[in-house]
């Protein structure tokens, strides 16, 4: 394998994250909280660190302040190491006066910064996927096949295949065809025999398509050539990968573990709630490949007279007399007596309110940060620093699919109630 210092990772921070609104109203997509204490960006960064890839750039251009803060506070390598995790925000220059126009254009615009490191291999990752991968095996296949590009692929069934870029490989694993989100006959034409990639006969029948995970390894020099070939090519999936297949050695690397694109509210909600199941699809309790995040030095959570089942509870929470089932309770959450929370994600708070501040809020008729007494929350996402008053009912009893609440106090997407960051839901509100 090439020397470690010759491999650099670029994590794509994504666009405006409109499919995750309102969670992305005040933050970039990679900064969205995950599992009560992490952020989405912690997943690819941790995969890199666990794979000995320790030179990492993160490309962003939307709402990047909280992401910058998280990266600066979390990822600090020893001064005797050449490792780093740095943000590269979109910048306007005389040569490139516009913002990032797509995934490939984002990498094209930061090539001067990447090139300074004298690398020969570039690992390109997405910032909004939940999975655990040892990139060393991915890189090993890239080097063993002397590939110009290697794409990580995952077998999938017909139901999921329409939403992905699909690939065909020959018997050696070389990619010979790519189709972006095909439908109908075009979809059927992309079926492959996945037993050749190691699946059993039954599994191959169930998952006869190869989906691109949006994770690539490039020979750096070849990537530069491809990006300079046509300035109108702005996306890896639509333009760069098809062009590379025609002109280069493009190999597939099969990944057969858990992988979830959590770029929508529905996918984000389901992926989080699955973490509360007895045997979740994604395991945060893996000591050999931990997911890192900011060390907050919070006190242990205090739970008094509660009935709690199948729930993850972050650090520093104060929960009194509540019933909680199949939910995630984020750091510094305060939950009042008699509250019922089910199948919900509470992201917690960025800070604790002092007694004086709480008294002042009460005097002004404001609920304190957290969940008030006697409130019922079901199938909801409560973002950070939200104030849920007493005797509130967030249950969407009528099964509304899509709605915007008054003054931005709540939204409903895919029948999931979302209370945005810093929002207030007053006492007695029923949704």
Description:
The relative contact order is 0.12. Strands 1, 4, 5, 6, 8, 9, 10, 11 and 12 form a 9-stranded mixed β-sheet that branches. It contains 11 helices and 31 strands. The chain is of the alpha/beta class and 431 residues long. The model is unreliable at 1-5 (pLDDT under 50). Helix content is 23%, strand content 27%. It is globular.
Q: What ranges have pLDDT less than 50 throughout 5 or more consecutive residues? A: 1-5
Count of domains? 2
Named CATH topology of the largest domain: Spore Coat Polysaccharide Biosynthesis Protein SpsA, Chain A
Question: How much of the sequence is in beta strands?
Answer: 25-35%
3D shape: globular
Task: Give the number of DSSP strands.
Answer: 31
Termini distance?
Answer: 57 Å
The number of helical elements comes to 11
CATH class identity of the largest domain: Alpha Beta
Spatial extent as radius of gyration:
23 Å
| SS class | alpha/beta
CATH superfamily of the largest domain: Spore Coat Polysaccharide Biosynthesis Protein SpsA, Chain A
CATH architecture of the largest domain: Alpha-Beta Complex
For the report, how would you describe the main beta sheet?
9 strands, mixed
Q: What's the overall average pLDDT, rounded? A: 91
Helix content: 10-25%
Give keywords.
single chain; 431 residues; alpha/beta; Spore Coat Polysaccharide Biosynthesis Protein SpsA, Chain A; nine-stranded mixed beta sheet
Describe the secondary structure blueprint for this structure.
Layout (H helix, E strand, L loop, with lengths): L6 E6 L20 E2 L3 E2 L2 H9 L4 E6 L4 H10 L9 E6 L13 H13 L5 E6 L2 E3 L3 H10 L4 E8 L1 H4 L3 E5 L5 E6 L3 H5 L12 H6 L2 E11 H10 L6 H12 L2 E5 L4 E3 L3 H10 L27 E3 L2 E3 L2 E2 L4 E3 L2 E3 L2 E2 L4 E2 L4 E3 L2 E2 L8 H9 L6 E2 L4 E3 L1 E3 L4 E2 L4 E2 L7 E3 L6 E3 L2 E4 L4 E2 L6
Parallel strand pairs: 1-4, 1-6, 4-5, 8-12, 14-17, 15-18, 16-19, 17-20, 18-21, 19-22, 21-24, 22-25, 23-26, 24-27, 25-30, 26-31
Antiparallel strand pairs: 2-3, 6-11, 7-13, 8-11, 9-10, 9-11, 28-29, 29-30
């Amino acid at each position: 394998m090439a020397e470690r210092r010759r491999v650099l990772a670029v994590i794509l921070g994504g666009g405006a994250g409109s499919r995750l609104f309102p969670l992305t109203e005040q933050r970039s997509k990679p900064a969205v909280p995950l599992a009560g204490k992490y952020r989405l960006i912690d997943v690819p960064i941790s995969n890199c660190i666990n794979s000995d890839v320790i030179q990492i750039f993160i490309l962003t251009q939307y709402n990047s302040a909280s992401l910058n803060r998280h990266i600066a506070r979390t990822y600090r390598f020893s001064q005797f190491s050449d490792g780093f995790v740095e943000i590269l925000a979109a910048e306007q220059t005389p040569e490139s006066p516009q913002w990032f126009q797509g995934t490939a254009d984002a990498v094209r615009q930061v090539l001067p910064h990447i090139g300074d490191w004298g690398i020969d291999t570039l690992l390109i990752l997405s910032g909004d996927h939940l999975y655990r991968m040892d990139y060393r095996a991915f890189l090993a296949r890239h080097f063993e096949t002397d590939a110009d590009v290697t794409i990580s692929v995952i077998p999938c069934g017909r139901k999921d295949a329409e939403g992905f870029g699909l690939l065909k490989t020959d018997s050696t694993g070389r990619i010979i065809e790519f189709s972006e989100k095909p439908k109908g006959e075009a979809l059927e034409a992309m079926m492959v025999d996945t037993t050749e990639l190691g699946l059993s006969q039954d599994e191959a029948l169930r998952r006869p398509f190869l989906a691109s995970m949006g994770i690539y390894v490039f020979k750096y020099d070849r990537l530069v050539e491809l990006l300079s070939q046509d300035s109108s090519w702005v996306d890896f999936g639509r333009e760069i990968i098809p062009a590379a297949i025609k002109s280069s050695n493009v190999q597939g690397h099969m990944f057969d573990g858990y992988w979830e694109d959590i770029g929508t509210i529905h996918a984000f909600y389901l992926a989080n709630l699955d973490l509360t199941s007895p045997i979740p699809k994604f395991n945060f309790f893996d000591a050999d490949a931990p997911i890192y995040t900011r060390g907050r030095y919070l006190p242990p959570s205090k739970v008094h007279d509660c009935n709690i089942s199948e729930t993850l509870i972050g650090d520093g929470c104060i929960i009194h007399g509540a019933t909680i089932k199949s939910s995630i309770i984020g750091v510094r959450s305060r939950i009042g007596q008699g509250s019922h929370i089910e199948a919900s994600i509470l992201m917690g708070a960025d800070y604790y309110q002092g007694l004086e501040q709480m008294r002042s809020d009460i005097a002004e008729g404001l609920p304190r940060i957290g969940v008030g007494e006697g409130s019922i929350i079901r199938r909801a996402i409560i973002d950070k620093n939200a104030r849920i008053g007493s005797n509130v009912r967030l249950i969407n009893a009528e099964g509304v699919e899509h709605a915007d609440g008054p003054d931005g106090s709540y939204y409903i997407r895919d029948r999931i109630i979302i209370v945005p960051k810093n929002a207030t839901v007053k006492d007695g509100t029923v949704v």
